[in-house]
């Protein structure tokens, strides 16, 4: 039992990007792992329901392994976002950068409840999802710094990160939701029991194309979970000032909805499990509102304090921080010790440092690739540059 | 454009050409660069004040709201002053029923603006970035542009003006750098105006607001802080559909709009100094309907035309200017 736990733990601490890393460096202190519980049951907040007879359960069981994995993933995302903040201020990352810290429970909870073969699409606050969908931190940071080791080969940047079954990373607000419905249609058509999770924010919830999508999804019973990540502010506008109804889970009107505490990873997981099952059973789409919060401003050019008070941010950080919530739960229920979690923190910090090092030293994509992938075409064709003497070759 | 290339080549001593033009086909890293050259302060409009582009826009909007009691300004985040500070102070001065925020819905903003304008009130809508104007494309092209025509002049939305930050800014990438004037140039019924400086912006914006046709006013976002000039405090108008000849010359006509005007002004100076080529520089100012007379007259004089813009080449507005000029005064153009 102990050996199995030890092996499991060292595998966990190697992280999702592990490729030939030795387990030996990770264990610093030895302890009797038999002392920890293997799992615990937690009470979670009940979800508000719209057009649903019953909702997700109000208790969740989390195993020690799961807890450690959620903790590590959330901590990695948190540190990755803070590192991006630092790199941006050093002008190593340029352009636009929208950070996800504070909302980690949303992407981790969703990933925990769906399969890798399910599909996810979100808007521009995408770094967290890029990680949970399987892109290593170094590739995310390299994409932010615009290097060729990045997941979009350095041509996408912060808002355009993609990987298998993760469709980005989309800059135009609300435009990704009809795409999500389309992906869901393909899921239904290919009948492989897959679903699509289409995310958008509280600001985007007022876009016309979202309502068009609700109609199509409900009409054709598409297996799509529409998730509104309500972090209370659409850029600088609070939800009360932007929306006639802030009950975003009811906005689907004829589509059943759930309102979920987005700062509790278990709550999110149970809700998404419930929603995924609902969609997979062919009953059609669901709308889910995750009540969450972002600590940073809308983007790096927004200090984030002109439309909300520092006290408010501080209050959320101290009372509802998703990582602290999970940590307290694990420690109080004997699923992990404080030292163990600290070790994970150290390992995560190291991983982020190495990734940042890679991101700053990797070369930029070569200039010859500037014109690639505009169209799909063979043979390659020539693209005019800014003046008639410059031509780029476009290969795809 | 090709004609201009050959023209410049003809103007150069043979050896110099080889050294100046890079190997065809070899890509090179180039960095955008320009320095804003302010125009002298005008004396005919009264007292002037030092303003940058966003301040001149605020001044124009202030004048418009003061003069026209039906004028309203709306858009995303305009209430606190706007993401580029173009509407700072206006809500406090004119009240929250005249300067107000809309939710995040461009199609809704423009449709709503058309509705206001149809009743006769003056609507000044802001689209946060020109890149986001496309959800509203249908409203602009199908509703706003054609209202007067299809109702037989019974109704019109002429008092609608749409403002949007436009053009490259260095770090904007796909969705904060676009120049969509060419998409709209294809649509009769609307006017498109792009200023090059604070002085021009205020006058042109006031003309757009008072013009009895729906207007789209694109503001070069890179100039919001970078361009500083002495701008009159009182309202004044600069006529639409009139291009301005900034510098006369005899060898080649260069046409641009917005930020690019400053680039070609530098190029004209360099051409004069290094190649002895005298350039006539024209700021088009109004893209639609554009001043064909000024441009054609200039090309008839110089015989060569070079048009430069930020937007993509294929289908860009330069193709319209180029074909019209060649159509009208082909006989006057130099062959090399």
In brief, what are we looking at here?
The complex is a heterodimer of chains A (396) and B (336). Chain A is α/β, with parallel strands linked by helices. Chain A has helices spanning 2-14, 64-89, 104-113, 127-132, 137-144, 176-190, 208-219, 239-242, 265-280, 310-320, 322-332, 338-361, and strands spanning 39-43, 48-50, 59-63, 119-121, 196-201, 224-230, 233-234, 237-238, 257-261, 286-291, 381-384, 391-394.
Strand element count of chain B: 13
Q: Determine the oligomeric state from the structure.
A: heterodimer
Trace the largest sheet of chain A across and list its strands.
2-9-10-6-5-4
Amino- and carboxy-terminal Cα gap of chain A? 52 Å
Alpha-beta content class of chain B = alpha/beta
Average pLDDT across residues of chain A?
90
Strand and helix layout:
The complex is a heterodimer of chains A (396) and B (336).
Chain A: H1 2-14, E1 39-43, E2 48-50, E3 59-63, H2 64-89, H3 104-113, E4 119-121, H4 127-132, H5 137-144, H6 176-190, E5 196-201, H7 208-219, E6 224-230, E7 233-234, E8 237-238, H8 239-242, E9 257-261, H9 265-280, E10 286-291, H10 310-320, H11 322-332, H12 338-361, E11 381-384, E12 391-394
Parallel strand pairs in A: 4-5, 5-6, 6-10, 9-10
Antiparallel strand pairs in A: 1-3, 2-9, 7-8, 11-12
Chain B: H1 2-11, H2 14-20, E1 48-52, H3 53-67, E2 72-75, H4 90-94, E3 99-101, H5 106-118, E4 123-126, H6 137-144, H7 147-150, E5 160-166, H8 181-185, E6 191-193, H9 198-210, E7 215-220, H10 223-226, E8 228-232, E9 244-247, E10 252-256, H11 260-275, E11 279-283, E12 286-288, H12 292-302, E13 305-307, H13 317-329
Parallel strand pairs in B: 2-3, 2-4, 4-5, 5-7, 6-7, 10-11, 10-13
Antiparallel strand pairs in B: 1-8, 6-12, 9-11
Helix pairs in contact in B: 3-9, 5-6, 12-13
């Amino acid at each position: 039992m102990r050996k199995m736990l030890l092996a499991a733990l060292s595998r966990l601490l190697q992280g999702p990007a592990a490729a030939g890393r030795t387990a030996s460096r990770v264990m610093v202190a030895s302890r009797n792992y038999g002392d920890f519980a293997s799992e615990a049951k937690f009470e979670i907040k009940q979800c508000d329901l719209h057009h649903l007879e019953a909702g997700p359960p109000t208790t969740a069981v989390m195993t020690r392994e799961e807890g450690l994995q959620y903790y590590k993933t959330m901590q990695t995302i948190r540190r990755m976002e803070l590192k991006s903040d630092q790199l941006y201020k050093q002008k190593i990352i340029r352009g636009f950068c929208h950070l996800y810290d504070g909302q980690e429970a949303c992407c981790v909870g969703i990933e925990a409840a769906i399969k890798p073969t399910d599909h996810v699409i979100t808007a521009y606050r995408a770094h967290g999802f890029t990680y949970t969908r399987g892109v290593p931190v170094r590739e995310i940071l390299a994409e932010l710094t615009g290097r060729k080791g990045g997941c979009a080969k350095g041509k996408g940047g912060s808002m355009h990160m993609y990987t298998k079954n993760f469709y980005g990373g989309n800059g135009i607000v609300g435009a990704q939701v009809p795409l999500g419905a389309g992906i869901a249609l393909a899921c239904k058509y290919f009948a492989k029991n897959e679903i699509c999770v289409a995310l958008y924010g509280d600001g985007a919830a007022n876009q016309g194309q979202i309502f068009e999508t609700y109609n199509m999804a409900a009409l054709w019973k598409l297996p799509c979970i529409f998730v509104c990540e309500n972090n209370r502010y659409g850029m600088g506008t609070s939800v009360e000032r932007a929306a006639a109804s802030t009950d975003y889970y009811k906005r689907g009107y004829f589509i059943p909805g759930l309102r979920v505490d987005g700062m509790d990873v278990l709550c999110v997981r149970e809700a998404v499990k419930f929603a995924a099952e609902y969609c997979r059973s062919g009953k059609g789409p669901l709308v889910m509102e995750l009540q969450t919060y972002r600590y940073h401003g809308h983007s790096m050019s927004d200090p984030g304090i002109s439309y909300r008070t520092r006290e408010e941010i501080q209050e959320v950080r101290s009372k509802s921080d998703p990582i602290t919530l999970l940590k307290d739960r694990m420690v109080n229920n004997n699923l992990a010790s404080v030292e163990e979690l600290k070790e994970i923190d150290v390992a995560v910090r190291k991983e982020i440092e190495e990734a940042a090092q890679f991101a700053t030293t990797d070369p930029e994509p070569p200039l010859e690739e500037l014109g690639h992938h505009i169209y799909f075409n063979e043979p390659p064709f020539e693209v005019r540059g800014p003046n008639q003497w410059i031509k780029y070759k476009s290969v795809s | 454009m090709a004609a201009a290339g050959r023209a410049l080549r003809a103007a150069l001593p043979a050896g110099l050409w080889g050294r100046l033009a890079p190997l065809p086909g070899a890509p090179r890293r180039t960095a955008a660069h320009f320095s804003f050259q302010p125009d002298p302060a005008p004396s005919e409009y009264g007292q002037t004040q030092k303003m940058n582009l966003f301040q001149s826009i605020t001044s124009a909007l202030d004048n418009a709201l003061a003069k026209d009691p039906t004028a309203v300004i709306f858009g995303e985040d305009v209430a606190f002053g706007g993401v580029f500070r173009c509407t700072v102070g206006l809500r406090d001065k004119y009240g929250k029923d005249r300067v107000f925020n809309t939710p995040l819905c461009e199609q809704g903003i423009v449709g709503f603006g058309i509705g206001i304008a149809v009743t006769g009130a003056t609507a000044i809508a802001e689209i946060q970035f020109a890149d986001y104007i496309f959800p509203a494309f249908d409203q602009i092209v199908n509703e706003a542009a054609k209202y007067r025509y299809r109702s037989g002049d019974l109704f019109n939305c002429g008092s609608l003006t749409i403002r949007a930050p436009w053009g490259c800014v260095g770090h904007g990438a796909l969705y904060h750098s676009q120049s969509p004037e060419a998409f709209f140039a294809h649509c009769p019924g609307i006017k498109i105006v792009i200023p090059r400086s604070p002085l021009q912006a205020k006058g042109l914006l006031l003309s757009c607001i008072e013009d009895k046709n729906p207007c789209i006013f694109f503001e070069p976002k890179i100039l919001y802080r970078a361009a500083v000039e002495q701008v009159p405090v009182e309202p004044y108008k600069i006529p639409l559909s009139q291009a301005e000849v900034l510098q006369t010359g005899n060898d080649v006509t260069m046409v641009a709009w917005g930020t690019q005007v400053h680039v070609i002004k530098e190029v004209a100076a360099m051409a004069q100094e290094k190649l002895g080529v005298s350039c006539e520089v024209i700021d088009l100012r109004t893209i639609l309907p554009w001043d064909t007379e000024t441009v054609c007259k200039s090309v008839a004089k110089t015989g060569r035309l070079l048009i430069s813009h930020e937007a993509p080449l294929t289908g860009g507005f330069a193709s319209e200017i180029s074909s019209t000029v060649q159509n009208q005064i082909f006989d006057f153009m130099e062959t090399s």
